[in-house]
Specification:
Shape of chain B: globular
Helix content of chain A: 55-70%
Largest sheet of chain B: 13 strands, mixed
Strand content of chain B: 35-45%
Oligomer: heterodimer
Strand order of the largest sheet of chain A: 1-2
Largest sheet of chain A: 2 strands, antiparallel
Helix content of chain B: 10-25%
Structural class of chain B: alpha+beta
Distance between the termini of chain A: 5 Å
Number of strands of chain A: 2
Number of helices of chain A: 8
Number of strands of chain B: 20
Number of helices of chain B: 4
Order of helices and strands of chain A: EHHHHHHHHE
Radius of gyration of chain A: 18 Å
Radius of gyration of chain B: 23 Å
Chain lengths: ~220, ~280
Amino acid sequence: MARIGSTTHSLCALGLAVDRASQATDLKKQNIEDERLMRRVADGDQDAFSALVRSHSAQLYRVAFRILSDSHEAEDVVQQVFSKLWQTAPNWKSKGKGLGAWLKKVTVNRSIDRYRKVRIVSSEPHPEPVDKAPNQHHILEMKELNLAVTEALNALPIRHKTAIILSYYEGYTNSVSADILGLNLKAMESLLVRARRNMQDLLVKKGVAGADMVFAR
Amino acid sequence: MTKRADNDDVLNGPVEPLIPDGLADRIIAQATALPQQEKKSEKPYWIAAMAGLAATVVAAFFLLPQFSPNNLTTITTAAGETRTIDLADNSSITLNGATQLVLEEGRDRFARLVDGEAIFTIEHDDEAPFIIETEGFRLVDKGTIFNVRKIDDELSVAVSEGLVSIESGAEPILLRAGKALSFFGGRPAHVTDIETATVGSWSQGLLTFELAAMDVVAADLTRVTGIEISLAPSLKEQKFSGVISVHEEKGQLKDTLTQLLGVTVSDTETGWSFSH
């Protein structure tokens, strides 16, 4: 979780509170269902493939979009990932942390490769929040904070940015993030420390109150 | 038209990227229009065992140039470029800049590192260990994460997790996590202790050196940044130990190098020049 400045709701700008125990149980169920579907996809079953795409594509798109800051590039990456899955399904072997982990890993790696190749500078503006809350002052403050966080995130080196996205936005454990980035746990932790420090420096430079800025997990 | 993903309350959660309408439908339509691979026949256990035995008996065979009837795919990165190849078994190979790697169709657990540097993150399988060939050596994975560097006549392997067997015609050398081994031409290998977190740290923009000659430092910087670096002859004997972060902007990186390496960095037509 993160707390920035004097606004408690600014926690939201960097991460979600994640119930890790329930996440693990859901993940187990998801893996079992994925395995069942993959056996059918291996035999060319398009309905099973559709179910997998509908189950995973939004999450993968979200991660790709956050890394690339471009909707077309993000969709292209997710398309490539699922095309590869469909084509290689007959020889798919369940290993490691399951299909979901593999999909995330491939999506993140392809997004990083593409980011480095394309060097996208401009980012698609983040969606305007729906005006639900009555307190306009809070919304304005939140929008400004979101903008500062988005700009700081986009200014980070790509591996730092990805580490922050996986840990704070997607709420993955360090172990899952390490697996996705091909690092051992210690290297992942060290990457995250550097990424947080870097992010913190950038936010301070952008005028986000530094004195009481807290990054903690 | 677009629709908002799950959480759109800005006060209670982060602003989520919009999920494009029809994303899943487009993915399904495009993917299923592609042909699927043919299913490979499963080898009976005894065939796999015999193959393993045969491989052991003819261990020296790999040192010879091999004829392969299968299609080869050569993947090359330019200096300053990195690329990750994700394999179907959840393994991945991340290539540093100026690296050449060959994959062979039909051999899912095999790669040949022709030149350059790569991190191998391998899902270990006792029955089908991942094999990396490089000139005169064969590396067999017995664990998960390791970095391999093959530059001219230098081969170095650093293990971050698990175990790697290095074979070169003699007794295999088992290299454990936290150890690195280097061969320089005909000279004997030496094993050193390393910090596992630094293995493959180039992929995070960090170059770690321990008493490295300046030409090695310059070559590594070129590999990661794509900036061509030439050295004044007087610098070639100079050694450097430390960590260089190449995340910075070029101007900042120049300042950092000036301070860290104690050199003057000047612009040239093709890149940078280091001098005293």
